[in-house]
Amino acid sequence: MTKTALITGAAQGIGKAIAIKMAHNGFQLALADLPQQKERAQGVLSEIQKIQPGNKPAIFLPVDVSDKKSVFDIVDKAAAHFGSFDVMVNNAGIATIAKVLEATPEELDRVMRINVGGVLFGTQAATKKFVELNRGGDYTPSTVKTAQHRLTGKIINCSSIAGNEAIASLSLYSASKFAVKGLTQASAKELAPLGITVNAYAPGIVLTPMWDLIDQKLSEITGLPVGENLKRQIDGIALKRGETPEDVAGVVAFLAGEDSNYVTGQAIAVDGGINYN
Ligand SMILES: NC(=O)c1ccc[n+]([C@@H]2O[C@H](COP(=O)([O-])OP(=O)(O)OC[C@H]3O[C@@H](n4cnc5c(N)ncnc54)[C@H](O)[C@@H]3O)[C@@H](O)[C@H]2O)c1
């Protein structure tokens, strides 16, 4: 049976690249993003249609991942549309530039609610669906032994290099990405008895609109010309180039596929070898 995956933040950047890669790998795809991203998402849907003309067409589902109910709704809709649900990619996230001493309660709430809340709600909604569809709603402890031999779903969360070592002026963002790793580890332990694996990917300096924004805001703080902060970050990468969304997508596809069935609770860095000095 064709597997179904839902990817949040899939209208552009890393989420889009993950969608295209997973389309090549044969997944039925639900792309979720903010309602105002509908037009961009339509473009991704058209690309997917060309890659897999034989599959049931991919769909766009508007969502705000910081809203628990809306995340449960899109998981329900994706599963109802495709008749299966197997992989949840909690990719959506935002960057905030805030020095520790200047960070506001509003910025704290916003970044935590989207970057951490989005992962939490996505994990809760996907688990509910995996159990309903793939385990027959059976939570009883007596089945735990067999569950460990039968995977029922995969959850893949987006952390960051900033979740491995915090970046100055990205205090709240870094904290949120450390939190994603914590949630990933706890979820992996709690959900293993249900046959669910939970992993994270930790991208480096990916050349998406997010870094355009970070670079611009950092230059306001550091006084360096626009582009210079990004250049300095790239100079610290062993492979000496900025990361592409496609560089990230391959690792996510591995975590979504069968070759990673015995991997859980991990945050896999895909950063070209960042030098933290
Ligand atoms: N770009 C990088 O260098 C980098 C590095 C490490 C980690 N990441 C992480 O990768 C993920 C994707 O980032 P990107 O670089 O593709 O950024 P991006 O800004 O290009 O794309 C993010 C997508 O998420 C969507 N989104 C934002 N808030 C949302 C919400 N509340 N509900 C639903 N969708 C929402 C946006 O509309 C957008 O389509 C993020 O979690 C980000 O933190 C990015």
UniProtKB/TrEMBL annotation:
<protein>
    <submittedName>
        <fullName>LAME_0B02740g1_1</fullName>
    </submittedName>
</protein>
<feature type="binding site">
    <location>
        <position position="33"/>
    </location>
    <ligand>
        <name>NAD(+)</name>
    </ligand>
</feature>
<feature type="binding site">
    <location>
        <begin position="64"/>
        <end position="65"/>
    </location>
    <ligand>
        <name>NAD(+)</name>
    </ligand>
</feature>
<feature type="binding site">
    <location>
        <begin position="203"/>
        <end position="208"/>
    </location>
    <ligand>
        <name>NAD(+)</name>
    </ligand>
</feature>
<keyword id="KW-0521">NADP</keyword>
<feature type="binding site">
    <location>
        <begin position="12"/>
        <end position="14"/>
    </location>
    <ligand>
        <name>NAD(+)</name>
    </ligand>
</feature>
<feature type="binding site">
    <location>
        <position position="91"/>
    </location>
    <ligand>
        <name>NAD(+)</name>
    </ligand>
</feature>
<feature type="binding site">
    <location>
        <position position="177"/>
    </location>
    <ligand>
        <name>NAD(+)</name>
    </ligand>
</feature>
<dbReference type="GO" id="GO:0048038">
    <property type="term" value="F:quinone binding"/>
</dbReference>
<comment type="similarity">
    <text>Belongs to the short-chain dehydrogenases/reductases (SDR) family.</text>
</comment>
<dbReference type="GO" id="GO:0019152">
    <property type="term" value="F:acetoin dehydrogenase (NAD+) activity"/>
</dbReference>
<keyword id="KW-0560">Oxidoreductase</keyword>
<feature type="binding site">
    <location>
        <position position="173"/>
    </location>
    <ligand>
        <name>NAD(+)</name>
    </ligand>
</feature>
<keyword id="KW-0520">NAD</keyword>
<dbReference type="GO" id="GO:0045150">
    <property type="term" value="P:acetoin catabolic process"/>
</dbReference>
<dbReference type="InterPro" id="IPR014007">
    <property type="entry name" value="23BDH"/>
</dbReference>
<dbReference type="InterPro" id="IPR036291">
    <property type="entry name" value="NAD(P)-bd_dom_sf"/>
</dbReference>
<dbReference type="Pfam" id="PF13561">
    <property type="entry name" value="adh_short_C2"/>
</dbReference>
<dbReference type="GO" id="GO:0006633">
    <property type="term" value="P:fatty acid biosynthetic process"/>
</dbReference>
<dbReference type="InterPro" id="IPR002347">
    <property type="entry name" value="SDR_fam"/>
</dbReference>
<feature type="active site" description="Proton acceptor">
    <location>
        <position position="173"/>
    </location>
</feature>
